[in-house]
Amino acid sequence: MFEMHKFALWAVAAVVSVSAPVLADQPTAELQALDDALPGTLINDPTRLDWQIFGADQTSKPVKGENIPGGKAATQITIAKAGATLFEAGANAPITAGIKSGTDVVVAFYARTVSAETSDGRGRIGVRFNQNVPPYSGFGDTTILIEKDWKLYQVAAKANISIPRGQAVVGFQLSGAKQVIEIGQTIVASGTTSLTTKSGKTEQSATTDILPQLQGKGKLISNPANKDWAVYGPGATHQTVPSPNIPGTGGTALLVRTAAAAANAFEIGAIVPITDSIAEGDVILIGILARTAPGGSPDGTSKLGIRVQANDPPYPGFGENVLTLGPTWRLLQVKTQAKTAIDAGKGVLALYFGAAAQAIEVGQVFVINTSKLTPSSNQ
């Protein structure tokens, strides 16, 4: 789904407005693959162009074209007249994380000038990492001259203020000239000064490594390389299916199809072994990479139940939850606190498929005891 350009900057194949993921902290598998390929940490959603456009003397519209690099889509903004200040009109691209003072932040974006009433015919874009609420504090103010042809531009800065999550944006300020500017795919990352250098991140093992967004959160107490799960229940079929190019699945997934809803969702399920003991009061993080299988439901959604429990009668447990899956691979995370102790080798994570007539693919399952920090997670 990704296309590599001349720099180590990945391009998402289609830039579209999409709804928020089930858990806002978790990217889709495709965006996680982009994050893994980049230096630093991805802190925006490059598949979105539904930005806040502002200013009295501007109009805007979406444009698409095979010649537009990145996602083959862009936002065209027309500035009717130059403003007294650069920031009277422009666009704000949301940043999905907070920014701490002292952090390196970089934005890379595709842009071109359609027309500009300037001495050199080039457009002007002011770029600023900005707090999008009063007093609109920011940093990294840079003015870039934009060529007629599509080019990749980059601005890096070190934050001299902290901006809370939900308030940070990259501001594209456009009132420096009467002009028509197109801005395409935009990628923002923290913890690096450049997106056009090769990533220093290590390769993700297909089967045994914990996924990057779970690293450092505690001690892994399941074996994600083991998919020899016991599957049970009437009126359901299951099989191993390929899942190539989806990080963290190990190349295969468990597909479970239910012909109809069971009287109780737990009547159709799979058992994922937990290797270590759990003490009462431990905080357990469950990460499940899953999706609704193609054709699995009319609206593309499905319901996956989960529960941590002992695997012997009377099956004491905790952490009952129902996850809503969509047609795209996503890592869903759920935290729960142990209400009962479970001995080593006796615990399981139960996956329940019987909520509806549906088809679900489960790629990888991670159970992490966040109360038992490993040396790498206690930083």
Helix tally? 1
Binned, the helix content reads under 10%
- Number of E strands: 24
Ranges with pLDDT <50 over ≥5 residues? 1-25, 198-208, 375-379
CATH superfamily annotation of the largest domain = Galactose-binding domain-like
CATH class of the largest domain: Mainly Beta
CATH topology of the largest domain: Jelly Rolls
Helix/strand order, N-terminal first: EEHEEEEEEEEEEEEEEEEEEEEEE
Rg, rounded, reads 24 Å
Distance between the termini: 34 Å
Counted up, domains total 2
- What's the CATH architecture name of the largest domain? Sandwich
Mean pLDDT: 85
Shape: elongated
Secondary-structure-based class equals: mainly beta
Show the helix and strand layout.
Elements: E1 2-4, E2 10-12, H1 29-37, E3 41-42, E4 52-54, E5 58-64, E6 73-79, E7 90-94, E8 104-116, E9 123-131, E10 138-146, E11 151-158, E12 168-173, E13 179-190, E14 219-220, E15 230-232, E16 236-242, E17 252-258, E18 269-273, E19 283-292, E20 302-310, E21 317-325, E22 330-337, E23 347-352, E24 358-369
Antiparallel strand pairs: 1-2, 3-13, 4-7, 5-6, 6-13, 7-12, 8-11, 8-13, 9-10, 9-12, 14-24, 15-18, 16-17, 17-24, 18-23, 19-22, 19-24, 20-21, 20-23
